[in-house]
Specification:
Largest sheet: 7 strands, mixed
Oligomer: single chain
Strand content: 25-35%
Length: about 350
């Protein structure tokens, strides 16, 4: 048996207003909750039991995923009553694991989309006989992430979590949010207080002489914690830039879910998803966007790299470019929202009220 812990308890503050009514892992990407893609990839790697470490809106997960049998998995739900940090959440979830002390346990962050060969990571973990193996990726601007330099054999040398000074940026290798733990290492994490696995657990293991192994991988990797990256992730999944068994359709320039209506003369592409019951009117042009269930894009509207919430309405000739429209919002005709504009759930904007808005 291969087991995994999936960390899905965060509030998703950076993704608001998408996460006002929905926990971040349940926000739809490429036609299904983002979490479904992570579960599908874990299943494809041979994982058969996943513990979901929930907290924020915890009650939403089980009604959708149930016991996991429909997804080829056994799912267990463990809920934090108080925030425990990443390390504390892993330790809290471990109560539901059945693996032995030396068995590998996969741990996944709930806001990462990656093409990583998960099975290969587990194999390299076992071959290295490591206490923890970390997926690492290289980025052009590593200063916003946790830096993880390694030696020629892949042994982790240090951890610098979000460096504050230029001289601290000693590598372009960052912690990519996927780990293989020896089970007994998880059991040693304190269980009675908040713990950061990045700032406390990993540096503490290094100081104690534990073997931490880094696997640098150049496959697709994206932190979906912000609206722009979430929309990009959805489009990349639809287009097949990164593959997921959970996408309900073949790769292409758009994904139209059952019950959606696309009028003649409307244009959709760039990996756009049109949700069930949504309506795209004649003359509208929707590119690289997510239009959720029941939303309506009116005639001659222009929507690019944006997310339109459930049952929201975008009026005629309105332009959205990099915008997020909350559930049940109403955007009147002839508005223009660009560069990260966010409209909260249930907001009503009159015709021609906004020509440009950015956050």
């Amino acid at each position: 048996m291969t087991e995994a812990v999936l960390l899905v308890g965060g509030k998703g503050t950076r993704l608001q207003p998408l996460t006002i009514n929905t926990p971040k892992p349940m926000v739809p990407a490429a036609g299904v909750p983002f979490l479904a893609h992570q579960l599908a990839r874990a299943r494809a790697a041979g994982v058969d039991h996943v513990v979901l470490a929930t907290s924020y809106l915890a009650e939403v997960f089980e009604p959708y995923f149930g016991d996991g049998s429909a997804h080829g998995l056994r799912l267990t739900y463990v809920t934090e009553e108080e925030p425990l940090g990443t390390g504390g959440a892993i330790r809290h979830a471990a109560r539901a694991l059945t693996s032995g002390p030396s068995d590998p346990v996969l741990v996944l962050n709930g806001d990462i989309l990656t093409g990583l060969d998960i099975r290969g990571l587990l194999l390299r973990h076992e071959r290295a006989q490591a206490d923890v193996t970390l997926h690492l990726t290289r980025v052009a601007s590593p200063g916003a992430y946790g830096l993880v330099p390694t030696d020629a054999d892949g042994r982790v040398l240090a951890f610098t979590e979000k460096p504050q000074r230029p001289e601290e940026i000693v590598t372009d290798q960052i912690n990519a949010g996927c780990y293989a733990f020896r089970r007994e290492v998880i059991d040693a994490i304190p269980g009675d207080r908040p713990v950061s696995v990045e700032r406390e657990t990993f540096p503490g293991l290094l100081a104690d002489g534990a073997l931490l192994h880094g696997v640098v991988d150049a496959s697709y990797w994206l932190d979906v914690g912000r609206p722009a990256s979430f929309v990009q992730a959805s489009a990349d999944l639809v287009r097949g830039v990164v593959r997921s068994p959970a996408v309900p359709g073949e790769p292409g320039e758009h994904l139209v879910l059952p019950g959606a209506r696309i009028e003649p003369g409307a244009r959709i592409g760039g990996g756009t998803v049109v949700g069930s019951g949504a309506h795209i009117a004649a003359g509208a042009d929707v590119q690289g966007s997510v239009v959720l269930d029941g939303a309506r894009i009116e005639a001659d509207a222009r929507v690019r790299a944006s997310m339109v919430g459930s049952r929201a309405r975008v009026g005629p000739r309105t332009v959205l470019d990099g915008a997020v429209i909350g559930d049940h919002s109403r955007i009147g005709a002839d508005n223009e929202l660009r560069e990260g504009a966010r409209i909260w759930c249930g907001t009503a904007i009159p015709d021609a009220a906004i020509r440009f808005s950015a956050v």
